[in-house]
Specification:
By secondary structure, the chain is an alpha/beta fold. 41% of the residues lie in helices and 18% in strands. The chain has two domains: 115 residues, Aspartate Aminotransferase, domain 1 (Alpha-Beta Complex); 198 residues, Aspartate Aminotransferase, domain 2. 42% of the residues are buried.
Length: 331
Amino acid sequence: MSAIVHGGRLDAAIAEYGGECDDWLDLSTGINPNPYPVPEVTYTSWQRLPDEGAHIKLITAAKKYYNVPEEYGLVASNGTQAIIQSLPQILAQQKVAIVSPTYEEHFHCWNLAGREVVKVQTLDEAVERADIVVVVNPNNPTAMTYKPDELFKTAKKLSHKSGILIVDEAFGDVMPELSVVPTMSENMIILRSFGKFFGLAGLRLGFAVSSKTVSDELKLRLGPWSVSGPALEIGAVAFGDQRWIENSRIHINQNSEDQAEVVEACGLQLIGNAGLFMEFEHENAAALHKALLKEHILVRPFSERPTRLRFGLCKNMEELERFALAIKRNV
């Protein structure tokens, strides 16, 4: 089975096209380019195994931030990827539908577990064909969004056949009104990512919100110390920094609107904008991707959809001007 290509991998681009890391503009991911200012971490967080008190503090802060209802559980892990890989081990349903195109690890992990997995285009088709439905909201890479009511209806239909709806809200922080967590139902599992919005993907911190039965099984599967001491400490502080959170949402939404407008003016068609990333279409997208690499700008192409490119968010106006000039020179 071939490896899945993700965004990032700047080292590989440098190896082929030269330059140093600081020379490159990496727009291949959806990670906030203006990250949360990492607070000073206590020495004991590095020295000792993560303790229960620090874990409880993080979970309490995360539950408040995500508006988790009291009757549901929340599990922390070293990134949502670990949870995605664990879910096939604890859910018994055999037929899985992935609303696609989307984050390929969902299909990969269910397929690797030997389940009957199909890619579908709509929620209705997914419900017809499977007992487990996976949807990413906002979707990566298309930035398509689903209203909570649509997802609640899907979960209700699945409940009639003991089905499960998995909603990956990895990029949901910018659009909190889309989250189904506050009013979720028993047959939903919601995935949330810390690193993307807070710009600290290397910290490896993710969450699953679910029924307490599922969360208990997830905890057993993930094992002890599934989150590092520094991640527990930093996450708890960041979740409580309401001023930074509100200001970042405002800046991300404004900056992404500005970037989308600038790129459209360069001749590309906007498909969708999720705040931290946006997808565009252009008939010569593959050639543009290669040309940008020569200018030390890394964006995300898609071999199965060769007219599409995904762009992460520029850090500031200087980066956006560099990006726009490079596009103009090569379209």
